[in-house]
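Try this one yourself first.
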């Protein structure tokens, strides 16, 4: 573990699965302003940053990186992706901006920087579209001035492609999956599938956008339009277990990220994974003492029912 550079994860929230995977590979620093964010307790180091809009946010992260020899900084939410991209930098979407008039209805009105299916509204005509644009952009306290976009309302099955790009923007892998069930915009049941059209779409989108790191591409297979991308989330998706289970040994995305952070060049292996792996997610919890430290106690669930019960 000492030979690999550390990994810093921001906005860890409840993504215990992602943090735990990295913590098994190398020193992992979890950053979240909420002292009760459960995922931070899977990391080796916990840190509470200033607010993302605070000028001290990036310097705070930079100091952590220097202190812990961090090789990669990975956001787990959309909240600070642009902030981190600007700090690091110092076509396929059927989407228009609110001021433009779409040539199709119905449409979906949604925040341009949204996550978790927040504030997504179906508009059947121009009047409804204009109403929801005003509502999402500035109709509620705390959301004034939020950028909005308008997308064609897609039909057919919804699917996702979990991808990883290297530091040059080459797509290393693209693993499609079904969305059997979701809650609050987060997939909780699904299965990795082998679909050459989706695999190629994921690879093409990643390399066209030069995505470095993980991304989840959400698509619909509309009976009229065909495949249409609705979201490109440049972070791990909610269904992180799907590519983790489907990846070949030694090729899970956390393993590849740690290897790249250590300076290794990874050869693209798009389409090399195990299809048919299904995941089903569930809730769990931690008990904390008066100092908000884990007690180590677990609530042991009951075993399976006896045969014939």
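Now uncover the answer:
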């Amino acid at each position: 573990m000492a030979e690999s550079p550390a990994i810093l994860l921001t906005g860890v929230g409840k993504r215990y699965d992602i943090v735990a995977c990295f913590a098994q590979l190398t020193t992992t620093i979890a950053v979240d302003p909420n002292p009760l964010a459960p995922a931070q307790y899977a990391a080796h180091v916990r840190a509470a940053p200033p607010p993302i809009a605070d000028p001290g946010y990036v310097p705070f992260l930079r100091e952590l990186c220097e202190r812990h020899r961090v090789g990669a900084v990975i956001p787990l939410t959309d909240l600070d992706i642009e902030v981190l991209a600007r700090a690091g930098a110092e076509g396929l979407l059927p989407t228009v901006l609110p001021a433009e008039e779409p040539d199709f209805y119905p449409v979906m009105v949604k925040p341009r920087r949204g996550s978790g299916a927040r504030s997504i509204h179906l508009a059947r005509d121009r009047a409804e579209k204009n109403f929801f644009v005003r509502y999402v952009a500035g109709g509620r306290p705390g959301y004034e001035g939020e950028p909005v976009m308008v997308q064609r309302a897609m039909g057919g099955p919804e699917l996702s492609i979990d991808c990883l790009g290297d530091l040059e923007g080459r797509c290393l892998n693209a693993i499609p999956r079904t969305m059997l069930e979701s809650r609050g915009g987060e997939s909780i049941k699904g299965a990795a599938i082998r679909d050459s059209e989706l695999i190629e779409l994921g690879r093409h989108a990643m390399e066209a956008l030069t995505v470095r790191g993980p991304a989840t591409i959400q698509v619909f297979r509309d009976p009229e339009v065909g495949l249409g991308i609705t979201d490109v989330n440049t972070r791990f998706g909610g269904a992180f277990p799907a590519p983790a289970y489907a990846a070949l040994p030694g090729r899970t995305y956390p393993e590849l990220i740690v290897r790249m952070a250590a300076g290794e060049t990874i050869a693209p292996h798009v389409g090399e994974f195990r299809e048919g792996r299904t995941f089903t997610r569930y809730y769990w919890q931690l008990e904390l003492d008066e100092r908000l430290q884990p007690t180590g106690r677990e609530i042991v669930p009951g075993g399976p029912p006896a045969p014939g019960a």
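Discussion: The chain has a mean pLDDT of 86. The domain at 158-280 is CATH 3.30.470.20 (D-amino Acid Aminotransferase; Chain A, domain 1).
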